[in-house]
Amino acid sequence: MIQGIAASHGIAIAKAYQLVTPELTYEKKSIDDPNKETERLEKALATAKGELEKIREHTRKEMGDEHAEIFSAHLLILDDPEMINPIKDKIKSENVLAEAALEETTNMFVDMFKNMDNAYMQERAADIQDVTKRVLAHLLGVTVPNPALIDEEVIIIANDLTPSDTAQLNREFVRGFATDIGGRTSHSAIMARSLEIPAVVGTKEITGSVKQDDMVIIDGIEGNVIVNPTDGQIDEYKEKQATFERQKEEWAKLKGEPTITEDKEQVELAANIGTPDDVESVLTNGGEGIGLYRTEFLYMGKSQLPTEDEQFDAYKSVLEKMEDKPVVVRTLDIGGDKELSYLDLPDELNPFLGFRAIRFCLENEDVFRTQLRALLRASVYGNLKIMFPMVATLEEFRQAKGVLLDEKENLKDEGNSISDNIEIGIMVEIPSTAVIARQFAKEVDFFSIGTNDLIQYTMAADRMNERVSYLYQPYHPAILNLINTVIEAAHHEDKWVGMCGEMAGDSIAIPALLGLGLDEFSMSATSILPARTQIRGLSKEKMSSYKDKFLSMGTAEEVVEFVKEKTE
């Protein structure tokens, strides 16, 4: 049994699918038979074409023609004689391996495209790199993982899953995943909860312990992975799986109920989403709104920036499906562990503290204005609220709000209808912002506390670094005091405060947050009904009476023990 971190509840039993980047190294050497090398190249090209055609068809069916065009562009590269013929010529004239001829030739084209002034041509460099990697893998006889083509029930085994990896997963067949690294707040864990599939992360060893097609059990309740289980273990976990499903049926009875405490105080339970497709899960799980729409997923898995109309369609779809329920949309938050291949962003020593989120948007106003225009146009279709991420200073908020209001006037001048009731807020994820929340509260319409980053910045502990993961402490009194500062500042100005970090759905944190006066809890959709069940059994007045005790404690362990003692 392999122990990890339970990141998404549930039990899954299926074959392993290794989503591991293959090793693409080779020894450079001269060859005796150029014709044989050319044949190897042509065979690898044909195999790559076949794969890309299948992926394009799958993408067209699942995501539409526009997304499928990415792979049409890749196929055109493989058919381009101006790209392929120089590779063949190099093999024959220099007697080199097909691998070397491929890499050296395509690297030349990549450099050439990257240095062009034309943005479209610069984007083609990323396409060439993707195609080259695929062909090189086939030349080396290495399997290229194609998650979009999974057509049987599997459990994904990976070192980690990037947002673009998870965007390709076939939800119909992926039953769960296990990773070497990560924690409850890593993107792979968040996506697992969004997909409503079990996940165990941070195992440290899963990719080295599991082979392709091994039978695997994922226990997302206890955080265990069992490789090649016995028949008895399979029976045991099937029963555990059935028990969990019965528990979900009990939770489901509260789907249409308001979230009211034992002493009749009401709070709002909302959901975090990444795509319009996630709304169905929000409604199925009784979400009272969307507290965080992560718009960066509109930008991922593509070869270029989404257009204004593409974004408008996505935002309109979400707002219409949610009817009059609030929808908080976070403007583009790239950087950190979220990269876009078609944007030539500089490498940074510490990207989490670097050029990301609102910093990127304010320096790239054309990208920012396109998104804001799409949001403003969609605002008449529902209850839209807009928030800016990673705001560190009042000047940043004022500048971002100024751009938004400027585009609002531009759209009105063009004859567009825009809602007059759009609230504009910020994510509080930088400690300095929490400290001067009183000043921010005079200007924003609301706060949403992003604890995933607030915790790592406050504790100076990278949440993706296994060696300092013990310092990632949601219940630490320093974190609770910052949260309290934000809530008190907002309430002093009659503004509301939400929380869209994973802490909002944490069963230990919920009583403390209720006592601090949090107004809106936004979490993975699958956490809503368990949280509603828990809150209905809590007294807000009683939890509030413990507030000073929470805030005066010295360690996270003391907070945990106190919460357990007062709620059991």
SSE inventory with pairings:
Layout: E1 2-3, E2 5-8, E3 11-18, H1 34-63, H2 65-78, H3 81-94, H4 98-114, H5 119-139, E4 154-158, H6 163-168, E5 174-179, H7 187-195, E6 199-201, H8 206-209, E7 215-219, E8 224-227, H9 231-252, E9 268-273, H10 279-284, E10 290-294, H11 308-322, E11 326-330, H12 358-363, H13 365-378, E12 383-388, H14 394-413, E13 423-428, H15 431-435, H16 437-441, E14 446-449, H17 451-459, H18 477-492, E15 496-499, H19 509-516, E16 520-523, H20 528-536, H21 540-545, H22 547-552, H23 556-567
Parallel strand pairs: 3-4, 4-5, 5-6, 9-10, 9-16, 10-11, 11-12, 12-13, 13-14, 14-15, 15-16
Antiparallel strand pairs: 1-8, 2-6, 3-7, 7-8
Helix pairs in contact: 1-2, 1-5, 2-5, 3-4, 4-5, 11-13, 13-14
Overview of this protein structure:
The longest helix has 30 residues. Helix 13 packs across helix 14. This protein has 23 helices and 16 strands. Helices cover 48% and strands 14% of the residues. Helix 11 links the parallel strand 10 and strand 11. The relative contact order is 0.10. It is globular. The mean pLDDT is 90. It is of the alpha/beta class and 568 residues long. The protein has an 8-stranded mixed β-sheet. The protein starts with a strand and ends with a helix. The chain has 3 domains: 124 residues, Phosphohistidine domain (Glucose Oxidase, domain 1), CATH 3.50.30; 106 residues, Enzyme I, Chain A, domain 2; 315 residues, Phosphoenolpyruvate-binding domains (TIM Barrel).
